[in-house]
Write a structure and sequence with these properties.
About 30% of the residues lie in helices and about 25% in strands. It is of the alpha/beta class and about 350 residues long. It folds into two domains: about 1-125 and about 310-340, Medium-chain alcohol dehydrogenases, catalytic domain (Quinone Oxidoreductase, Chain A, domain 1, Alpha-Beta Complex), CATH 3.90.180; about 130-285, Rossmann fold. Strands 3, 4, 5, 6, 7, 14 and 15 form a seven-stranded mixed beta sheet that branches. A six-stranded parallel beta sheet has the order 10-9-8-11-12-13, with helices on both faces. α6 (about 225-230) links the parallel β11 and β12 (about 235-245). The chain is globular. The structure holds NADP nicotinamide-adenine-dinucleotide phosphate. NADP nicotinamide-adenine-dinucleotide phosphate (NAP) binds near residues 156, 199 and 331. NADP nicotinamide-adenine-dinucleotide phosphate binds near residues 133, 222, 225, 245 and 247.
């Protein structure tokens, strides 16, 4: 049998609750022509998935969407054979189909993984869309220069860890913003950021100002809300801001357009100081940049020059609880759930 999580038919509230999801059982599907059956090994839990749930993007009764690392069991799909390890989108499910007619976001293209390139779990993290997000938003869009100050929010998370390290490799002084003290320590001691301040501190805005004595030239925004408000007065003339995500607003039903609200709050400073604000959507970079990104970044990850922490939980039963933890910052590193044996470890 296949166990999988769906949304319940209760109204979806601001944040996930105990009865938001239902664990169901059904037969393991059979692959049709052009399809392959895969078993899920790792389920990636990411903030954007909450938007999918709140907007009820998934078909009623279908498994909740997620990017996954899986293994092919049976293939009728060109280019894939039984035993292959793949990136695909099985969702919150133990088994799934990929290939012809299987719904998925257009830029989440199934691909075969090479375990020699890095741990297979990293295909949904630093060697996948999260690494590419950091690379596109920091290197390609914000272009940090030697001596500049770059600030990254959610700095210990899946995207933030990488964004700051890439800025530092380009010679910038990098300041992180994170939650708990152990996360801030990790950001400085393990990732090599120059400083990290906690947004949980009552003196957060003053701490950030003290950590950025020369102002802020580059800001990689993952959070929004009060974190953005503390960054805003510190922008230097000609600063660049990449809006990657606004996780602080994802549960706020009244704030239907958080991007516009942020623009309105920042407008006077943006205009007076010539701050360039650009929006990032990783899907725009998959086709043109993923291979080049992998060639550049995979060797750094393999050699330890770029560090990357994962928070791997266990068991299909735990998925909704882990998801809720990730949304409120109780993850420490990129959140994944292992639901099947990883043959590479
Ligand atoms: N634009 C794109 O194409 C794209 C692609 C991927 C991801 N994203 C976005 O990138 C951001 C980071 O995603 P991720 O996958 O790397 O997640 P993540 O950082 O691994 O996990 C989310 C983190 O956000 C922080 N957080 C949550 N609520 C917060 C709040 N109210 N104030 C301050 N911090 C809060 C928590 O860290 P602390 O404990 O440190 O506060 C939490 O651990 C998200 O906004 C996501 O939507 C965008």
């Amino acid at each position: 049998m296949n166990r999988y999580w769906t949304l319940s038919d209760k109204p979806v509230g601001a944040w996930p609750e105990a009865d938001t999801f239902v664990l169901r059982e059904g037969p393991i599907p059979s692959p049709g022509p052009g399809q392959a059956l895969t078993r899920t090994i790792y389920i990636s839990l990411d903030p954007y998935q909450w938007g999918y749930k709140r907007r009820r993007v998934e078909a009623p009764g279908a498994a909740c969407h997620a990017r996954t690392v899986s293994q092919v069991i049976e293939s009728r799909m060109d280019g894939f054979a039984a035993g292959d390890l793949v990136f695909n989108t099985n969702g919150w499910a133990e088994y799934g189909l990929m290939g012809e007619g299987v719904a998925r976001p257009s830029y989440m293209i199934p691909r075969r993984l090479d375990p020699a390139q890095g741990r297979i779990s990293q295909a949904v993290g630093v060697l996948g869309m999260l690494g590419l997000t950091a690379y596109a938003g920091m290197v390609l869009m914000a272009e940090p220069r030697p001596g500049e100050t770059a600030v990254v929010s959610a700095a210990s998370g899946g995207v933030g860890q990488i964004a700051g390290q890439l800025a530092r490799m380009r010679g910038a002084r990098v300041v992180g913003i994170a939650g708990r003290a152990e996360k801030c320590r990790f950001v400085v001691e393990e990732l090599g950021y120059d400083a990290c301040v906690s947004h949980l501190s009552p003196t957060f805005a003053a701490d950030l100002r003290a950590a950025c004595p020369d102002g802020i030239d580059v800001y990689f925004e993952n959070v929004g809300g009060a974190v953005f408000d503390a960054v805003l007065p510190l922008f230097n003339t000609g600063a660049r801001m990449t809006i990657c995500g606004l996780i602080a607003t994802y549960g706020d039903a009244a704030n239907t357009n958080p991007r516009a609200a942020l623009q309105a709050r920042g407008e006077a400073v943006f205009r007076a100081r010539g701050v360039t604000v650009r929006d990032l959507f990783v899907g725009d970079y998959v086709e043109g940049h993923h291979d080049a990104f992998l060639r550049e970044v995979a060797p750094w990850v393999a050699s330890g020059q770029v560090k990357y922490r994962e928070d791997i939980r266990e068991g299909i039963e735990t998925v909704p609880a882990c998801f809720a933890e990730m949304l409120r910052g109780d993850n420490f590193g990129k959140m994944l759930v292992r639901v099947g044996e990883d043959p590479t470890v």
